[in-house]
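does this look right to u?? S-adenosylmethionine version
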Amino acid sequence: MQLAASATDVEAVSTLVSELCGVTLGASKGYLIEARLGELVDRFHCGSYQELANQARSLMNDALRREIVDKMTTNETLFFRDRSPFEALQHKIIPHLIDAKEKTAYPTRLRIWSAGCSTGQEPYSIAMTLSEMIPDIHDWDISIFATDVSDDAIKTASTGVYAAHHVERGLPSQFREKYFQPSTGGWQVTDAIRSLIRFQRANLLEPFTGFGRFDVIFCRNVAIYFTPERRVDLFKRFADSLSADGYLFVGSAEAPSDLTHRFFPEDHCRSTVYRPHGSTSLT
Ligand SMILES: C[S@@+](CC[C@H](N)C(=O)[O-])C[C@H]1O[C@@H](n2cnc3c(N)ncnc32)[C@H](O)[C@@H]1O
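got this back:
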């Protein structure tokens, strides 16, 4: 039988999860903790969830901390989620970036970051969009950097294999024909598309050391789980990581409204994208 989580357990696990990855557990936290961490409590021979949290805090227990993060993060995602950001990318942003880049020292370089990429559907959707736009894409210096705090999510994303029901969610059938091949377990993204993406485990609470600057950052449906203070800190660091003419996509409930001194909004294709001050307006 599943061990019940007491109020003390809920407090201990919620504090740990917030410290590890910034995620604030929602109203159903007791139930979530029981459903997702019950097996770990058994495996680590703990008498309570609080004891599990204490074990995870021990210096030697990075593997347990990572497993807790894997289990407590919400990895819900789908190909071309919300559709309109990808339409804005295709019809407005990429054409603008291609024009703007022509006058620079690196006319064929594009750097895009999918921050909180979950199991990979977002960066693969970006890669397919770019591939549609740029026929000679492999002659370009394109890099899509895709990061997530969850080891499991990054592992799935890197293999690029999806069960049929995941591929059916959001992906136009002509894209499945063009960019996927049948594989054990479902469908695998082609090597040509996978080669455009570099996957890496990275925690958005930590400094973005060595990441460089990006033309476009997607960070959607991630900061919604953070406290307002952490969200502001994250968006400020995104502002510092964008090129002067860059673009930031966030989820529809995550507008950086308290950062009007760093970003201004622009509406394209029914989507709002945030630009650093000083960038050339597209409208
Ligand atoms: C709901 S998914 C969103 C996936 C995708 N961006 C989308 O919109 O479909 C949220 C992802 O954020 C990741 N995440 C949560 N906290 C994070 C952190 N501190 N650093 C990096 N990724 C984090 C989770 O592991 C999860 O995969």
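The beta strands are 109-115, 141-148, 161-162, 180-183, 186-189, 197-201, 214-219, 242-250, 263-268, 271-276. idk if thats expected tbh
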